[in-house]
Amino acid sequence: MTETTLSHLDAAGNAVMVDVSGKAQTRREAVAKGRITMRGTTRDMILSGTAPKGDVLATARIAGIMAAKKTADLIPLCHPLALSSVKVDLIPTTDTPGIEITARVSTTGPTGVEMEALTAVCVAGLTLYDMCKAVDRDMEIGQICLHHKSGGASGLYERTAPPSR
Questions:
Q1: What is the pLDDT of residues 61-84, one digit of tens each?
Q2: Burial of 164 (0-12, 13-18, 19+ CB in 10 A)
Q3: Which are the catalytic amino acids?
Q4: 17 is in an annotated binding site
Q5: Which residues of the chain fall below pLDDT 70?
Q6: Which among 51, 110, 123, 165 could disulfide-bond with 67, CB atoms 3.0 to 4.6 Å apart, if both were Cys?
Q7: Is 77 annotated as a binding residue?
Q8: Domain count, the chain
Q9: Has residue 69 been placed in a domain?
Q10: Containing domain of residue 67, as a range?
Q11: Is 115 marked as binding a ligand?
């Protein structure tokens, strides 16, 4: 099986899950990042642990990890994977008040974990929003993208700069 034969369409043009049974089992890793921007007072409330709903960062971290594990249930045609590791980091930003969200996901298998990393970032951001919306409905979740991918036939990908639009 070659990478060029993989498709989410069958011979009749119908959507199908790609058959990855002929692909090699290799270590695969993906890193995705995103950001939630908010008022400075909201970020400070999160960091001080005084949010009305409790430990916002711990809850968002757990939500991101759980989401990565459930990606195949959320994204059509995505393969269910046995993940080796999921790590979600939430780092306060100072240039614009907010939290940078980074998810690092790895597995040993026949297909990559890009969707799991991206899903973890999205759900962690949504959890941050949900837990703080009572005090700041102006929060924005964005800049979600793949930063690193390794393993598999397509090799290494490193994001070097945002694409020009």
A1: 999 999 999 999 999 989 999 999
A2: exposed
A3: 130
A4: no
A5: 1-8, 163-165
A6: 123
A7: yes
A8: 1
A9: yes
A10: 24-153
A11: yes
